[in-house]
């Protein structure tokens, strides 16, 4: 839910008068950061403990689910942003090469 929530909220906010994304920021970057934001799990662990009771089977299942989702979010978000970073690095190298040929 966090990746979707962050992306949609950013989109809605960018539609407000006087609000816009920075020119260097792209929507795929927002999506990637939303994925990485899914790592946060402290409150989820607290809520599961308060809901199911500490040490219960359901609490244990909830903890495994929360930690698995956080790990998955870290892996997917990191991989996605690594691909984006390679794209930016190639673009920067191409721009540097163009600047050298113009000099």
Largest sheet data: none
Structural class: mainly alpha
**Total separate domains:** 1
The total of helices stands at 4
Q: N-to-C terminal Cα separation, in Å? A: 49 Å
Q: Using the alpha-carbon principal axes, give the shape.
A: elongated
Write the H/E string, N to C: HHHH
Helix content: over 70%
Count of DSSP E strands? 0
- Overall pLDDT metric: 89
What does this structure look like?
By secondary structure, this protein is an all-alpha fold. It has one domain (2-102). The protein has helices spanning 2-14, 27-37, 42-52, 57-102. Helix 1 (2-14) runs antiparallel to helix 2 (27-37) and helix 3 packs antiparallel against helix 4 (57-102).
Looking at this protein, list some descriptive labels.
103 residues; mainly alpha
Summarize the entry for a quick read.
The chain has 103 residues and is mainly alpha-helical. Helices cover 79% and strands 0% of the residues. The protein contains four helices and no strands.
